[in-house]
Design goal:
With about 110 residues, this protein is α+β, with helices and mostly antiparallel strands. Helix content is about 35%, strand content about 10%. The protein folds into two domains: about 50 residues, Wheat Germ Agglutinin (Isolectin 2), domain 1 (2-Layer Sandwich), CATH 3.30.60.230; about 50 residues, E3-binding domain (Dihydrolipoamide Transferase). One of its GO terms (molecular function) is DNA binding.
Length: about 110
């Protein structure tokens, strides 16, 4: 039996169609929000002056020993992994339905959703 899973993103601000999930952090807490391209652009433009003056902090945590500043291939969540798999399949890339997603595919997904 085969199964096809599609992930539809809804903009968390206006309820419209979202094209990407944006991750950000403040005060030691991490957040993720699904946004349309327009709302994601507005968020990035709003944060831009603060990011220009900020310092990057190396990431660490479970499963990231020796890889500070580098995300896990699946992005750390099953929802994100499903989004990446769906995108990869629609883009004609070969990706397994289970297991680790190759870092190259994750990087391509992230580049396409900036």
């Amino acid at each position: 039996m085969s199964r096809k899973v599609e992930v539809l993103l809804v903009d968390d601000l206006d309820g419209g169609t979202a094209e990407e999930s944006v991750e950000f952090g403040i005060d030691g807490k991490s957040y993720q929000i699904d946004l349309s391209s327009e709302n994601a652009k507005e968020l990035r433009e709003t944060l831009s002056p603060f990011l220009q003056g900020a310092r990057k902090v190396p990431q660490s945590g479970p499963g990231r020993k020796g890889q500070q500043g580098r995300k896990k291939a699946a992005g750390g969540s099953s929802r994100r992994a499903a989004e990446i798999r769906s995108w990869a399949k629609q883009a004609g890339k070969q990706v397994n339905d289970r297991g680790r997603i190759p870092a190259e595919i994750v990087a391509e997904y992230e580049a396409a959703h900036r």
